[in-house]
Specification:
The protein is mainly β. It contains no helices and 29 strands.
């Protein structure tokens, strides 16, 4: 049996699909990325828009925040990366062509030392954030036969997992730039991936409408979660690692028990859902949609 989530309020300001959400590690601000070519910074305590970051020339596809909460890095379909100062709302750095084609995936290591990008050129690149101005990546990772859609990093910052439209996930050594294993099981594009907080498992979401839980060490599939009726666009974990949260084009956000795979929470929206995130204290879920809205939901999971 699942419970319905309570909708607190909605952030409005973007004029197109919300592609990514990031929360500052200190829990004070939300940064949203949109196909309207902008990012917006919101104050989580009152839900107000603090400022807009404009400068990309095409859809913004990803955003991550440095561990000290002072900077955001964004990627876009214009092939570029930008670093923004979150205090002054100014652009700190601009890498005009990080890839040969549109950048579709972005992640930052938990230690803040490196960023990982995935592109429609079918490659992934690992960048030293402190030396990004040299415009030269540490490694280029190739092996996917279709473009990467998402990347996630293990808590120890040693491995990166990429999801791609070749229906696979790949696990890479971040320090050596080497492929460790390929995970196969989805029957359509793998659209999203997350790593559990303890670093032992991977959760993937696909356009085959399922989620899969994998053992990171062995690469074996542990469980398949079925219940969505359309493409799954994003997946995230609660900070305690007990629950999985998924957002789908079927207009629902679903919450699953990590240990059993049981569906324990559900929220239905009026529009297709595209991304989701949980605040560091685990109390609030934010979910973006196809028309540019961000809904704020009460997380009931601590009751279980």
């Amino acid at each position: 049996m699942s419970i319905s989530l309570t909708h607190l309020h909605t952030y409005r300001g973007h004029t197109d699909t919300i592609s990514a959400l990031a929360i500052t590690p200190d829990g004070s601000h939300l940064v949203s990325a949109s196909h309207d070519k902008t990012l917006k910074v919101w104050t989580l305590s009152d839900g107000r828009e603090k400022f807009t970051l404009a400068g990309h020339y095409n859809h913004v596809t990803g955003v991550v925040i440095t561990p000290d909460s002072t900077s955001a890095i964004s990627s876009a379909e214009d092939k570029s990366l930008k670093i923004w100062n979150l205090t002054t709302a100014t652009e700190q750095f601009y890498l005009q062509q990080a890839h040969l084609n549109r950048i579709m995936a972005l992640a930052i290591t938990p230690d803040g030392s490196r960023i990982i990008t995935g592109s429609m050129d079918q490659s992934l690149k690992i960048w030293d954030l402190a030396k990004l101005e040299r415009e030269h990546e540490l490694y280029t990772l190739t092996g996917h036969t279709h473009w990467p859609t998402a990347v996630a990093v293990t808590p120890d910052s040693n491995q990166v997992i990429s999801a791609a439209r070749d229906n696979t996930l790949k696990v890479w050594d971040l320090n050596q730039g080497q492929l460790l294993q390929t995970l196969q099981g989805h029957t359509y594009f793998v659209s999203t991936v997350a790593v559990t907080p303890d670093g032992t498992s991977i959760v993937s979401g696909s356009w085959d409408n399922t989620l899969k839980i994998w053992d990171l060490k062995t690469g074996k599939e542990i469980r398949t979660l079925s219940g969505h009726t359309d493409y799954i666009e994003d997946v995230t974990m609660t900070p305690d690692g007990q629950h999985i949260i998924s957002a789908s084009y079927d207009k629902t956000l679903k919450i699953w028990a990590m240990k059993t795979g049981a569906l324990v929470g559900n929220f239905t929206a009026a529009d297709q859902l595209t991304c989701c995130i949980v605040t560091p204290d685990g109390k609030t879920i934010l979910v973006g949609d196809e028309v540019g809205q961000i809904r704020v939901l009460i997380n009931p999971l601590k009751e279980f």
